[in-house]
Write a structure and sequence with these properties.
Layout lengths: L1 H8 L9 H10 L1 E5 L4 E3 L8 E7 L2 E5 L2 E6 L4 E2 L1 H6 L6 E4 L3 E7 L31 H6 L18 H11 L3 E6 L2 E6 H8 L20 E3 L4 H11 L3 E5 L6 E6 H4 L7 H10 L3 H8 L2 H10 L4 H23 L8 E7 L1 H5 L10 E7 L9 H7 L1 H9 L17 E3 H13 L4 H11 L2 E2 L7 H8 L4 H14 L24 H20 L6 H10 L5 H27 L15 H26 L9
Parallel strand pairs: 11-12, 15-16
Antiparallel strand pairs: 1-8, 2-7, 3-6, 3-8, 4-5, 4-7, 9-10, 12-13, 14-15, 14-17
Helix pairs in contact: 1-2, 7-12, 9-10, 9-12, 10-12, 11-12, 11-22, 12-15, 16-17, 16-18, 19-20, 20-21, 20-22, 20-23, 21-22, 22-23
Length: 615
């Protein structure tokens, strides 16, 4: 038995058990032999009642016909079925003669089973902790309608006293009413802020303290999408409506949406909103890194992780502009502060810079137009405030404090028209591509002329073609030295820049496709989806690019978050030797997919067929 306990103690998650629990587990183990080629677990077979630990040999985890993980000595399988009580979703095949330790549900055997934390299979599948019932990923992917509560209805003219009594009787924390064509909502927080403080009397009409119109979301949207909306708006209740009729059918509360460990972004939102000084904002921002770690540990997948990180940074940035954007002539200007790049697309990496720009116009139509240089200089305290909050401004001057990214509304419009009509100038094309991702954090109406000038008018077709050529020119690695092409010189020698090699070509292509659809909003995946719907991409090419992008994004996040956990610098590159064989295999496949789509687009362009890969 000592040989078994020593083996288990050397492999996670069993290395977290104390000696007594290791002995209990070892005493229950049976050893089974599987010849190469044996199907150890069949997909969708009967629910398993035991787990397997590979002692010698190896096994493939197979999703339909696709290998999604390769497990070796010390790796566990079968736990997903055991802990969920569902049939095993994936098959497991012995790829060579294999010995396994087999034991029943450890929660019935061990005194401290909670110390075990099993991971989901593979990098192509969300990292999900399954020792408890249901992981964070599955919770985020549920339709919002699954977590909604019944509605307490009232009339807009009802008194606060009567509505409070009705909410108490129903055991609900909010009530809805219809006023005209709008739905209003009143919550327990409204009672605390407006009534308990004595601001409004209990005999006043309920619509005196209500929010009108209420924020709504269709019942078929996911919990993850609802959680992000709730975070952005700083609310705790969301009205769920029927997708076809728009009729309210329930209430979703943030406390019901996700596991406790991923509620922490709301702490940052509340703290930044309440900050009245830079010291308070710095204190709120100091929780960003631990919050990212909690999200990552919870298995939140790349797209949700990036959206939440971007939203948290946006909240800090917006408050920094309010606290530090007071130098003349800023108080006399109406300003749209914008986030650029990956923050603008809401798909940042943990170490992404905060790239910014400013659109402005005088508050008074009779006021003189200030010089761009003076407005740019006035934003420097905002850039300093961002740095004080532990975020990084762009070292290459993609900042509102640089005159190139600080212009009046008219100047931005004129510049965008120039870029659109002169796409053969490489500098102009790169500037235009940068501004395609610009997302206003304040006063979005001021940025509309810029966006309109980029997407419409003379030269739009050639501008789109130039951007498509740029996306094709950014090629992923085609040849492999020890299975990878990596940087050979300088600080990142023998490292692979996955963002540059895998993500950037897809991002740039998605920008060109967004120009053709006329919709620049959303993430790279959103843009690819719209291109498929517009028949600018075939369904296969769109799905292949989305899968490749998500893989590169997830691996990059995982690599940087592990560095953060280990208190190491978060670098833009990955050491290929730290990736397992399956990650390398998937990356090779992703790079080949990207190159194949680029080749298809290049062939179509050479044949004069068009800009997109209709397949």
């Amino acid at each position: 038995m000592k040989e078994i306990t020593d083996f288990l103690a050397a492999h996670p998650p069993y290395d977290q058990l104390d000696d007594a629990d290791l002995r209990r587990l070892a005493a229950s183990i049976e050893v089974e032999y599987f010849a190469a080629g044996t199907v150890i677990v069949a997909a969708n077979s009967d629910t398993l009642d035991h787990l397997f630990v590979v002692r010698t040999g190896s096994v493939d985890v197979v999703d339909r016909t696709r290998v999604v993980d390769v497990l070796g000595p010390g790796d566990t399988f079968g736990h997903i079925s055991v802990f969920s009580g569902l049939p095993p979703p994936l098959a497991v095949h012995a790829t060579e003669d294999t010995l396994c330790y087999v034991f029943r549900d450890p929660r019935r055997l061990l005194e401290h089973a909670e110390r075990l934390s099993f991971s989901h299979y593979g990098t192509m599948i969300a990292r999900e902790r399954l020792i408890s019932s249901g992981g964070t990923f599955s919770q985020l992917e549920r339709p919002i309608g699954e977590v909604m509560h019944p509605i307490t209805w009232c009339e807009a003219s009802d008194t606060i006293r009567d509505v409070a009594a009705r909410m108490t009787e129903d055991g609900h924390s909010c009530a809805l009413f219809v006023r005209g064509h709008e739905v209003g909502i009143v919550t327990d927080d409204d009672f605390r802020r407006r009534v308990v403080t004595g601001e409004v009397g209990i005999n006043a009409r309920i619509d005196t303290i209500a929010s009108i119109p209420a924020i709504v979301m269709s019942a078929d949207r996911t919990v993850g999408a609802a959680y992000l909306l709730i975070f952005e708006r700083g609310i705790h209740h969301l009205v769920v409506v029927d997708g076809a009729t728009g009729r309210p059918i329930g209430i979703a509360r943030v406390v019901d949406m996700v596991a406790t460990e991923v509620r922490h972004p709301l702490v940052i939102r509340a703290a930044t909103g309440a900050a009245t000084s830079m010291d308070q904002l710095q204190s709120a921002a100091s929780t960003l890194a631990p919050t990212m770690l909690e999200l990552w540990d919870s298995g939140v997948p790349a797209d949700h992780f990036g959206s939440l990180v971007a939203a948290m940074v946006e909240a800090i940035f917006e408050k920094a502009t309010a606290l530090a954007g007071t130098a003349a002539p800023l108080p006399d200007l109406d300003c749209a502060w914008m986030l650029l790049g990956s923050m603008g697309r809401r798909e940042p990496l943990p170490n992404s810079d905060v790239d910014t720009a400013l659109v402005w116009t005088p508050l008074s139509p009779d006021a003189p137009i200030p010089r761009r240089q003076d407005v740019a200089a006035a934003t420097e305290p905002v850039m300093a405030a961002i740095e004080q909050c532990g975020l990084r401004t762009c070292s290459e001057n993609l900042n509102a404090s640089f005159p190139l990214f600080n212009r009046s509304t008219a100047e931005w419009r004129d510049a965008a028209e120039h870029w659109r009509q002169n796409p053969d100038n490489p500098d102009d094309l790169l500037l235009a591509a940068t501004m395609l991702d610009a997302r206003p954090v304040t006063r979005p109406v001021l940025a509309r002329p810029l966006r309109t000038a980029l997407t419409t008018g003379i030269g739009r077709g050639e501008f789109t073609r130039a951007l498509t050529r740029l996306s094709i020119a950014s090629r992923p690695p085609r040849g492999f030295v020890r299975e990878f092409v990596s940087d050979h010189f300088g600080e990142h020698r023998n490292h692979l820049n996955i963002k540059k090699s895998g993500m950037r070509p897809i991002v740039t292509l998605a920008q060109a496709l967004a120009l053709q659809t006329g919709d620049l909003t959303g993430s790279t995946v959103d843009r690819l989806d719209r291109a498929r719907q517009a028949s600018l991409l075939s369904a296969d090419d769109a799905e292949s690019l989305k899968t490749a992008f998500t893989l590169c994004y997830q691996i990059s996040i995982d690599y940087q978050m592990q560095a953060l956990r280990d208190d190491r610098p978060m670098r833009p590159t990955v050491d290929p030797t730290t990736l397992d064989s399956l990650e390398r295999r998937h990356l090779r496949d992703a790079f080949r997919v990207i190159a194949a789509v680029q080749d298809k687009i290049a062939s179509r362009r050479a044949a004069g067929i068009g800009d997109a890969a209709r397949g």
